[in-house]
Structure prediction request, 231 residues.
Amino acid sequence: RKEVEQDPGPFNVPEGATVAFNCTYSNSASQSFFWYRQDCRKEPKLLMSVYSSGNEDGRFTAQLNRASQYISLLIRDSKLSDSATYLCVVKGPEGGSYIPTFGRGTSLIVHP
Amino acid sequence: DAGVIQSPRHEVTEMGQEVTLRCKPISGHNSLFWYRQTMMRGLELLIYFNNNVPIDDSGMPEDRFSAKMPNASFSTLKIQPSEPRDSAVYFCASSYAHVPGQGRREKLFFGSGTQLSVL
Prediction:
């Protein structure tokens, strides 16, 4: 299985701060990229896809750098409710199928 | 839709016992994945099915683990015999792609997981 690496953190930031996470992947043939969010003792849920040109969803911005093989997630104006683990997901061709591979996640703690 | 349904939510068993985890994917989805999550290793893909057919089980730890998908609405993951190192959260996820396995953008929908503790 191809490797997807993330800084586990935790990132401990005050409300209102801007925080950024990076994720690196080793398979240069990877085709699709996503960020999932996982709350404590819950299942992962899709936060956003990552497109080649970069994309934004409210306070969240995702970017892809194919040359350096990393994706990033930027969270502006952090809220207490943003506290969670953020999982980077990479889909690459594996034996003809596109299989999602998860990073181990980056923990974010937003404090008052 | 009810989402992906897993049972049981929690399972506590003794070493050597057989454990069966169950999953009902979202109706209409044609790919199903079993993942295991631990603090040490994160989310690991164990096996996945396309149209009920197992495609890649290279993530299954050893012969003690087996998975079946007898129809489009049900899958099981069995551990026999169980060992303490099998303790983890086991997630089932499903997705839909026009051609299963070829979807690049399709998202995964996860069940709530089964917390397994083997004593």
About this structure: The mean pLDDT of chain B is 92. Chain B touches chain A through 24 residues (CB under 8 Å). The CA atoms of residues 1 and 11 of chain B lie 26 Å apart.
